[in-house]
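We modelled each protein-ligand pair independently. The example shown here corresponds to the pyridoxal-5'-phosphate entry; the chain sequence is given first, followed by the ligand as SMILES.
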Amino acid sequence: MPALACCVDAAAAVAPPPGYATFAGDSSFFSAIPTPQTHTSDVTTTSVAAVNSHWSTSHSASLYKIDRWGAPYFSVNSSGNICVRPHGAETLPHQEIDLLKIVKKASDPKSGGGLGLQLPLVVRLPDVLKNRVESLQSAFDFAIQANGYQARYQGVYPVKCNHDRFVVEDIVRFGSAFRFGLEAGSKPELLLAMSCLCKGNPDSLLICNGFKDAEYISLALVARKLALNSVIVLEQEEELDLVIELSNKVNVRPVIGVRAKLRTKHSGHFGSTSGEKGKFGLTTTQILRVVKRLEQAGMLDCLQLLHFHIGSQIPTTALLADGVGEAAQIYCELVRLGANMKVIDTGGGLGIDYDGSKAADSDISVAYGLEEYALAVVQAIRFVCDRKSVKHPVICTESGRAIVSHHSILIFEAFSSGGYDSPVMSQAGLQYLVDGFGEEAGADYRNLTAATMRGEYEACLLYADQLKQRCVEQFKEGSLGIEQLAAVDGLCDLVSKAIGASDPVLTYHVNLSVFTSIPDFWGIGQLFPIVPIHRLGQRPGVRGILSDLTCDSDGKIDKFIGGESSLPLHELEGNGGGVSGNGRYYLGMFLGGAYEEALGGVHNLFGGPSIVRVLQSDGPHSFAVTLAVPGPSCADVLRVMQHEPELMFETLKHRAEEFCRQDDHDCGRGDGSNDDHGVKNAALASSLAQSFHNMPYLVAASSCSLTAAINNNGFYYCNEDDYNAAVDTAAGDDEQQWSYCIA
Ligand SMILES: *Cc1c(COP(=O)(O)O)cnc(C)c1O
């Protein structure tokens, strides 16, 4: 236990005051106490080999529950890294992708064959997306076959779950063979869905949900003119008048759906939109009025779809079947009333088991899989329709979360850790400490010593605490110096550690903004599996919480799946990870492909992550990066807040010109030649421009050569490209650089 040894050494070196002798000089003081095995002592006293002797990658897999939440897409490979199985259960061994290799490829400097992207990084896996869409389709195909259901399944993807162009385009492409469509809830979403579906199957549904104005409705009607299969789902009764009026005006026969407000209520976090008091949909009275109004307008044949949405993360198939059954009754009633019904759209809610617990009573878990979900839906509809002798409708779902959650992984880095790094008592500190004690503190100190000798742990803690409080009071009064205060902290830490009462949880600082990248953790307490993506062959020796870069006390992650308030982590290697050291430590947040990217804001002006799109390919590393996009730069995030980075840059550049000139003059430095000024100012301007150009996140020292350019007034450049740009100020028309960077 080096910390202890260190303190004891320091203590032994000073002339011990009365009472202190036993405490400090006698090393039996602590050895008398049977020290409980804490994580701390484990790691610091045992060699790495011994620590790992009873540890294997399968221990890590079960510790982090990877097989529970990650199957069939994520597992641990023999190198101790997370590997991606891009085709799910059908993945062949040689197709597995080592996630660490992707991260290295993305983040290594361009000069080293990498893509030079900054972290945090989103790794997007189109193969996984394809597997999800196909698995959902097969689950319904199977349920339909097994139940002798007489119509097909035809799903749509709600684009709000992840609007990324490539995600939406991929889903349309992968689902084209089975008429997979899209759902939109606003005008820009509709525009994006329309343009994507131009490349899709002509039968694919384009479901238009959300509150609508005349412009939205016109757009949905235009979609039909463009031979896209748009369905206007009435969310409010007033929308109907607009639909009737506008469709007559543009001479388009609309396909209309109604969103029903069900009585079935889902009680989880996401259930507040459901039930009679829910925010959305038409009541039975309103649905009846809609039917009447359509009949009067001679348009009852246009009403073809019934939509409902119980809420996201539907916890059980029992609740699902209940809601679907209720909706199927409404569907049959609409048939009876003469509507030309064809489709029942069961909305979203197909859940994700984020912690792998298969629990029915948790917001982050669900007690079913794709297959059970599909069976419950098909059986509930079939049961109701058969009893009413109604032709089986086409079944549509708007499953968002279930399609996109698995396909992306957020990778970020821990760059330092702190927590039980107890302040070491210096000799001087100790001397001050004892000298500076008032009468009461002195008594506490003697009591503490005595209790320690008797091995009375409770009393030890009590006296240590009292001593600390008194010293803080003395400090506030001004009668105790800062060194003494630090020494008291060290002493109390030493005591609690020696008797095994210290909190072994470390704080790992991560190069991330929780608000930007994991908004649902901050906003609604949603948990995602977070796991180191490498070193899984080693026993994680400590526990930690994750603290982000933002200046906000909410910017930390201290709740993890499995009800844990800390995460098992490996000790940072070298000089503590990224910013100053070279032992990189990468963590991955999984299952965050839905909602997180769309919701993230720019708190503290941290923008989004870099993104790579990674396909499985049959090469030596079994993957190919097909797209690499750096995350938003400082300029990009400033622009979001209406700043004008170009003007800001000009202002700073002019100021630099002004002050550099003055500097030279005042200090008598430089030969004052225009040439010299020119080079210096250009280098300075270039470094300023680079700051606008870079992402807001920390740049790891190991990827940052910190090279001082010759003759540059001591400005530093953070990678080779920038360095070259700075030196080569005259030329340099790099596409990546701003044209005005190099004035
Ligand atoms: C959000 C939403 C969805 C998607 O829900 P998931 O739970 O992600 O599948 C589907 N339909 C509507 C109307 C929604 O509001």
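The chain has four domains: 2-35+424-498, 53-129+406-420+503-631, 150-399, 636-727.
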